[in-house]
Write a structure and sequence with these properties.
The protein is of the alpha/beta class. It has two domains: 49 residues, Helicase, Ruva Protein, domain 3 (Orthogonal Bundle), CATH 1.10.8; 139 residues, Dna Topoisomerase Vi A Subunit, Chain: A, domain 2. It is 39% helix and 11% strand. 25% of the residues are buried.
């Protein structure tokens, strides 16, 4: 616990240390650095997060974060509408975009199927995905979920839901190691895995 005799300081430390991966000592250092900024800089810092909370939206099409009803990727006319890459979360979108190897659109599920955690298909954006595919009729769906048991189960569920549709279902190559999460994969490996994607049915062992 921090020992500064200032409730204001301690409250600021508590707020920062509530963030994942930010320990108490790191929070104290960050607060001390913020105190060295002038009033205008601190106001801009705080305003940025207030505006984020008040104005941020989720894209009505892919559920990526956005400043407008439709995100910049979905509204970009140069992106390929025939390919939709399915990811677990927004961090995965950022990771794939950083590879500069994918020029299609995304669909952010907002999680993966995990019965142990009480998360079923209807608790994430799978129904919206199926409806989107039926409406827009893309040519290819890329499964880019984490290579975990839950990720594979989600892949298989979606694959079965698309079985009656005339659409190519692929998955990123296993250059991404088993058990790896997409957001933590280095850009080179992830980029190659996207370019060298394979038909999803080739990964099935039953």
């Amino acid at each position: 616990m921090h020992q500064i005799s200032s409730p204001l300081f301690n409250n600021a430390v508590d707020q920062l240390s509530s963030l994942p991966g930010v320990g108490n000592k790191t929070a104290i250092r960050l607060v001390l650095q913020l105190l060295n900024r002038n009033e205008q800089e601190l106001t801009e810092f705080g305003t940025a997060f207030i505006k984020l909370s008040e104005e941020i939206q989720y894209c009505k099409t892919c559920f990526n974060i956005s400043d407008t009803p439709e995100c910049g990727i979905c509204s970009n006319l140069t992106r390929n509408n025939d390919t939709i890459c399915i990811v677990e979360n927004i961090l995965d979108v950022i990771a794939i975009e950083n590879t500069n190897q994918f020029k299609g659109k995304y669909h952010v599920l907002g999680g993966i199927i995990s019965p142990m955690d009480g998360i079923g298909p209807n608790d994430i954006k799978i129904p919206e995905l199926i409806e989107r595919i039926k409406t827009t009729q893309p040519k290819e769906i890329i499964m880019a979920l984490s290579t975990t048991m839950e990720g594979d189960a989600t892949n298989f569920y979606i694959y079965k839901k698309l079985a009656d549709l005339n659409i190519s279902v692929t998955t990123i190559a296993r250059g991404v190691g088993i058990g790896d999460e997409i957001e933590y994969t280095d850009e080179l490996t992830l980029g190659r895995s996207i370019l060298n994607r394979i038909p999803f049915k080739n990964t099935l062992t039953f």
